[in-house]
Amino acid sequence: MARPAKEPRRFRAGSEHLLPYYADGMLTPAQLDVNGYLDCLQACRDKFPDLRIISGVELGEPHWHAQQATDLIAAGRFELVLGSLHGLMVDGQFAEVAQLMQERRPTTVIRDYLLEVARLVANCQIFSVLAHIDYPVRYWRQHVRSGPFDPTQFEDEYRHVLDLLASSDRALEINTRLNPYPAIVRWWREAGGQAITFGSDAHVPNALATGFADAAALAEAEGFRPGRAPEDLWHRVLHR
Ligand SMILES: [Fe+2]
Question: Which has fewest Cβ within 10 Å: 62, 120, 135, 200?
Answer without folding.
Answer: 200
